[in-house]
Amino acid sequence: MDTRLTAEQDEIRRTLRELLHRRCGPRELRAAVDTPAGYDPLLWSALADRLGLPGLALPDRYGGVGCSVTELVLACEETGRALAPSPLLATSVLAAPLILALGTEDQRAGLLPRLAAGGLTAALAVPGPDLAAALALTGRNDGYRAGGGRAGGVQARRTPDGWALYGQADQVLDGHSAGLLLVAAHTGGFARSRTRLFLVAGDAAGLVRTRQTALDATRPQGQVQLRDVPAELLGDDDADVLPALAALGDAVAAVLAAEAAGAAGRALERTVEYVGQRVQFGRPVGSFQAVKHRLADVYVAVQAARSAACYAAWAAAHGEEAGRLALAQALEALRAAAAEGIQLHGGIGFTWEHDAHLYFKRAAGDELLFGPVHRLRDRAAETAGLFARGEVAV
């Protein structure tokens, strides 16, 4: 593995950091999350027009840039630093790769260029226990079911015109605003149960979407209700959805790890800057040895998380798995950096209005959505064959 960035990768990182510094400061961030969509459409357009960010990891024949997941991971480290609210995760990391992997050629040609250009956003609506289970981040997903009858989920039935979906999915990332929904639904009844993916237009009849109150406002979530909504099957009848979701999970984990590492690094930078300015007992707080030791521990954790995320990106590009361990390490680093930031900012750091809480909420929110950390590590150990099946680590 060569850890040196190419000239193109370095340019992506530099340009994106400059753009986000100008367009996504604390004031702009708070204004964006308070809008109905939960993000700034003008910033999203700038990311698409100047950098081609939505299509960074899509093939050029579908309007993408043609880069690998490595470049997407590097870009997401920068968006993580700024906590930039955007449809990038839902559209380019979750939905677009599934359309590329499972869609028919007509579906790819019709949807991927629009997603790559940023004119169309998408969301993956996965009902059931949580998104982490469907993506096999915290356990095997061979028992995952998108429908649960009276217990919830989404059911699909054939109609003379195609398919109709009925049910509900909660906590869908950007589900309230996406122009296209990729909905996991249950077909075949209980005797021949099967999970499939369906394409649903954001303005389809019978579709009701509501933005939810989320712990982390920079990751807006929506509740999706479907009442006999017309839908199009993604791919053909032979498309195997669960293995595709599991294969996607490791790349998603690598992206999330980079985001968390970037956020942790920025939280640490802000804290170091503050303790160098805050004076107590006639000297800067940052000059006290105890404070130096605490920040040094966070620095080591952040650098280890960045290294793990970089390796996970390289591994994903080469068909290997390392995302889950990298995500677990990055989430721990972000939580430590955010917690120390709140503590070392003193009384002002404990107010909800302070920016330090944005990083703490990102850490807690990501662990709730994609964790917890110990289950990520347990799944990584199982995948690596460290324990025999059925054996419990003590």
TrEMBL record:
Its EC number is 1.-.-.-. Transmembrane segments: none annotated. Keywords: FAD, Flavoprotein, Oxidoreductase. Residues 255-382 form the Acyl-CoA dehydrogenase/oxidase C-terminal domain. It comes from the Bacteria. InterPro entries: Acyl-CoA_Oxase/DH_mid-dom_sf, AcylCo_DH-like_C, AcylCo_DH/oxidase_C, AcylCoA_DH/ox_N, AcylCoA_DH/ox_N_sf, AcylCoA_DH/oxidase_NM_dom_sf. GO terms for molecular function: oxidoreductase activity. Residues 6-118 form the Acyl-CoA dehydrogenase/oxidase N-terminal domain. Its cofactor is FAD. It is an enzyme of class 1 (oxidoreductase). Coiled coil: none annotated. Belongs to the acyl-CoA dehydrogenase family. This is Acyl-CoA dehydrogenase family protein. It comes from Streptomyces sp. 900105245.
